[in-house]
Amino acid sequence: MTCNFSTSYQDMFIGGTSTTSTLLEWTMTELIRSPKSMKKLQDEIRSTIRPHGSYIKEKEVENMKYLKAVIKEVLRLHPSLPMILPRLLSEDVKVKGYNIAAGTEVNLFLSN
Fold it and tell me: I need a surface site. Which of 19, 69, 90, 97 has the fewest CB within 10 A?
């Protein structure tokens, strides 16, 4: 079996940037839908920027509670990856012709 590391790294990079860009798109969409929330977030960001600085440092972002709340809400409404919910079967079941024994842990993949 051969493994193409270049392809694997590319897949990981694209996967990471894809989920980030998707999060940004949904965040902007939700903020446009809710002008009051956008204004509140803009006020928080503007109050954090120093008079002669145009960049916010990581330490300052840690204190931006409303920004964190907005990101968490967007991730809740529009998860970038399907949620995986592990379950332990309490009895034997048959799914699509396969017998699955009680005590087996199964993962349920949920997405919007």
Answer: 97
CA atoms of 8 and 30, how far apart (whole Å): 33
Helix ranges (DSSP H) in 1-112? 5-33, 35-48, 58-62, 65-77
Domain residues of the chain, as ranges?
A: 5-81, 82-112
pTM over 0.70: no
Give the gyration radius of the chain's Cα atoms. Answer: 21
Tokens found for residue 31? 């903020």
- Residue for token digits 């790294």? 9
pLDDT digits over 27-80, tens only? 999 999 999 999 999 999 999 887 766 788 888 999 999 999 999 999 888 877
Q: Which pair of tokens denotes residue 101?
A: 């024994």
